[in-house]
Amino acid sequence: MNIVDFSLQLSLRPSFLESLLQPESLRLDWLLLAVSHDAPPSTTTMDDEGNPRPHSHLFCWGYSQLILLLIKLPADFTTKEKMIDICRSHGFWPGYLILCLELERRREAFTNIVYLNDMGLMDGDIGWIPETVEEWKLLLHLVQNTSTKPAPQQSPDGNFSDGPSPITMENVALLLAKAMGPDRAWSLLQECGLTLELSERFTRTCDILRIAEKRQRNLGCFCPLILSNAAANMRIQISLDLAFSSFGCVPRCGLVGSDEP
Q1: Which of 94, 110, 179, 196 has a C-alpha 20 to 30 A away from that of 20?
Q2: 9-31 per-position pLDDT tens digit
Q3: Which domain of life is it from (predicted)?
Q4: What local confidence, expressed as pLDDT, does residue 246 receive?
Q5: Is residue 151 pLDDT above 90, yes or no?
Q6: Which pTM was predicted?
Q7: Which of 86-90, 142-146, 181-185, 193-197 has the highest mean pLDDT?
Q8: CA geometry: angle 200, 151, 68, nearest 5 deg
Q9: Residue 253 near residue 260, CB atoms below 8 Å
Q10: What's the start-to-end Cα distance of the chain, in Å?
């Protein structure tokens, strides 16, 4: 069976994928075959040192769907490590980052994300957002010490654009401020000696975030007060109804001052 027929069968019958690929070593054979066919040249996905070229995770791979199916299959740790080595050595960065997440190789992932130079990789539900202060420090250090140049991307109509939002110190600092809050972010940036690299845009954004936080705090204090008043009014209404019912009647006109008939 050639790779075209195999890929077609998997797309039609994905539930049989795991049972077909036994032993697990067979998955590695198919993965190696998939990343070797209809793939972009390695010189466009990696530099001379084997690091990702900017935006090379956006390139088209003929069998990307098959590759992703293979790497997402349950497998032992050794097999997964071999898969991540295959993805890295061939420059298939989407699969590489997925496996980094699965194998908890977060430091390695952040290093290569900075080379890929796409803020979109750290945004959204599946983005690589630092989870600890140490990871934020690592990311800031990587951005400070890694020189990446935006790679122009070719659109379907043949025109070139600047591509995704680049990973710059200011963009990462803004992400930090949104995730951690402007004041904590500023303290961390000061600790890392990076405040001089930020522009007025960062300051204005932090001011807006502070206003938003203040309004949210005020709203948080106001809502319990409204609920408390509403609960108190309900208790008064119930008490009055019980008082009137104890005399064997409930006034048809409702409470004094109400508009109820």
Answers
A1: 94
A2: 555 455 566 666 667 778 899 89
A3: Eukaryota
A4: 52
A5: no
A6: 0.72
A7: 86-90
A8: 110
A9: yes
A10: 82
The phi and psi torsions of 37 (rounded to 5 degrees) equal -110, 140
Mean pLDDT confidence for 115-142:
88
Tokens of residue 133, six digits: 């202060």
Tokens of 46: 């990696």
Query: CB within 8 A of 189, min separation 6: which ones?
Result: 140, 173, 176, 195, 198
Q: Is the Cβ–Cβ distance between 29 and 37 less than 8 Å?
A: no
Which of the four pLDDT bands, split at 50, 70 and 90, describes residue 244?
very low
Residue type, 128: W
Q: How far apart are CA 190 and CA 198, in angstroms?
A: 11
The Cα 144–Cα 193 span in angstroms is 11
CA pair distance 228, 42, nearest whole angstrom: 65
The upper half-sphere exposure of residue 73, i.e. CA atoms within 13 Å in the direction of its Cβ, equals 27
All residues at 6 or more sequence positions from 205 whose CB lies less than 8 Å from its CB, including other chains: 174, 177, 182
CA distance 242 to 223: 29
Q: How far apart are CA 160 and CA 174, in angstroms?
A: 27
Quickly list DSSP for 58-122. Answer: GS--TTHHHHHHHHTS---HHHHHHHHHHHHHHT-HHHHHHHHHHTT-HHHHHHHHHHHT-GGGG
